[in-house]
């Protein structure tokens, strides 16, 4: 797999990556195709020089790395991204019956733009936990319905003639997807569980729990008079996941360890065992060093020589709201990936680290831009500052610029994925 600036490669990847679990599943398929070997994080590692490995603890996170032939005075080059996206999730008792309608009880995950989820074909993907002989290791199955089965209908303007002035949607009452019409067997106890069991070919009594995400079932498209844009769900942050996978597969240093770290739960703060604000990456890196019998001091020295790219999407100049951007620091779609700067360190950076990335770009003819918010607008944050506070190394936040970030369907420049892929590949080879 090597990205040749065919935007459909990214779109096909996103179409298959419908939940964090499916992001990892799809990524693993590409890694295994490239010869990466699976290892178990719960066991002792016996790694070999010149080999490539991956491990996927908890199902929604993924680490992949390459071991060089020479580990003397080695360091880590890390590219980190996240597998989750703002969306709706299904509650344990899912059925809501009202009038003649069957609805699904949902909660909001992260910070989606709620009204963009209305009037769209929606589907369901995620993980189901099943009874097992070993109670501490339940059975699991991934499920993706791969067809539209839900929708959230808007209220007609005839019933609210102020609707175009803006409507505040209630997360509990206004964001309940319509699933069907009630019939004789609809809305009886455990109807949703039985519906789910049929989809995964399991006994309903064997289903203990589930972690199910509602996703926009519309496929991505290339749009614009000259094909300038990609309109697609989940660009945040699967553009970054895609570039990390592409980079680790297509680059290999002779003297340093390259690693990608794909975390979950960034959209809700990362403070989980599978999030970037845990010690999970530290454990992975230490296990790599311990596999080669290095002393702990050698690990610390390597960390201080290492470099982290925190890869997440960025903002750009909005065509209808240019006043939302800084008056002179402006970046646009199709101008290259962005180096993300926040003077209060919500994006991780220092000037020497940025200079490193700029020199990589100059040497490899990679287009890039710099993004910084208006001083009176508080932007988002990323996982870069969290990881670098636990693993103190040079860190820079980068990503492709988006419009409509956190919408059910986001917009990017069709050329920008090429620049991000080229950066990460060059970063891993420099």
Automatic annotation (TrEMBL):
Biological processes, Gene Ontology terms: proteolysis
Its EC number(s): 3.4.11.-
Cross-referenced Pfam families: Peptidase_M18
GO cellular component, one term: cytoplasm
Keywords: Aminopeptidase, Hydrolase, Metal-binding, Metalloprotease, Protease, Zinc
Signal peptide (from-to): none
GO molecular function term, any single one: zinc ion binding
Cofactors, names only: Zn(2+)
CDD domains reported in the protein's UniProt record: M18_DAP
Coiled coil: none
Family matches, as NCBIfam families: PRK02813.1
Family: Belongs to the peptidase M18 family.
Name of the protein this chain belongs to: M18 family aminopeptidase
Organism: Mobilisporobacter senegalensis
Organism placement in taxonomy: Bacteria, Bacillati, Bacillota, Clostridia, Lachnospirales
């Amino acid at each position: 797999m090597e990205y040749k600036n065919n935007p459909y490669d990214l779109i096909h990847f996103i179409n298959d990556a419908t939940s964090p679990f499916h992001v990892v599943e799809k990524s693993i398929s590409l890694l295994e195709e490239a010869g990466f070997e699976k290892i178990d994080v719960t066991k002792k590692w016996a790694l070999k020089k010149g080999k490539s490995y991956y491990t996927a603890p908890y199902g929604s996170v993924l680490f992949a790395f390459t071991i060089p032939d020479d580990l003397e005075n080695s360091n880590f080059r890390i590219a980190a991204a996240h597998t989750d996206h703002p969306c709706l999730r299904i509650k344990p008792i899912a059925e809501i019956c009202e009038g003649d309608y069957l609805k699904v009880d949902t909660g909001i995950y992260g910070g989606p733009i709620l009204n963009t989820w209305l009037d769209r074909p929606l589907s369901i993907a995620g993980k189901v936990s099943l009874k097992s002989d070993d109670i501490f290791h339940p059975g699991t199955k991934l499920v993706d319905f791969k067809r539209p089965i839900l929708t959230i209908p808007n209220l007609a303007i005839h019933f609210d003639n102020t609707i175009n002035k803006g409507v505040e949607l209630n997360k509990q009452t206004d964001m309940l997807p319509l699933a069907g019409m009630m019939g004789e067997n609809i809305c009886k106890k455990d109807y949703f569980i039985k519906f789910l069991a049929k989809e995964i070919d399991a006994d309903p009594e064997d289903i203990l729990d589930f972690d199910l995400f509602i996703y926009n079932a519309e496929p991505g498209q290339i749009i614009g008079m000259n094909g300038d844009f990609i309109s697609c769900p989940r660009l945040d942050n699967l553009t970054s996941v895609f570039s990390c996978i592409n980079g680790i597969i297509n680059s290999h240093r002779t003297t340093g360890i390259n690693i990608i770290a794909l975390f979950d739960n960034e959209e809700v703060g990362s403070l989980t065992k599978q999030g970037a604000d845990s010690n999970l990456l530290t454990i992975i890196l230490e296990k790599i060093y311990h596999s080669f019998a290095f002393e702990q001091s050698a690990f610390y020295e390597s960390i201080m020589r290492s470099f982290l790219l925190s890869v997440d999407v960025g903002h750009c100049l909005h065509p209808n709201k240019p006043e939302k951007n800084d008056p002179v620091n402006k970046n646009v779609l199709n101008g290259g990936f962005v180096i993300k700067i926040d003077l209060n360190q919500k994006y991780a950076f220092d000037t020497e680290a940025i200079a490193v990335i700029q020199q990589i770009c100059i040497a490899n003819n990679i287009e890039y831009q710099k993004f910084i918010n208006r001083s009176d607008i508080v932007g988002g944050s990323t996982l870069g500052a969290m990881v670098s506070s636990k693993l103190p190394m040079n860190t820079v936040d980068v990503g492709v610029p988006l419009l409509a970030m956190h919408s059910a369907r986001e917009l990017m420049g069709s050329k920008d994925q090429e620049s991000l892929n080229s950066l990460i590949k060059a970063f891993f080879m420099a």
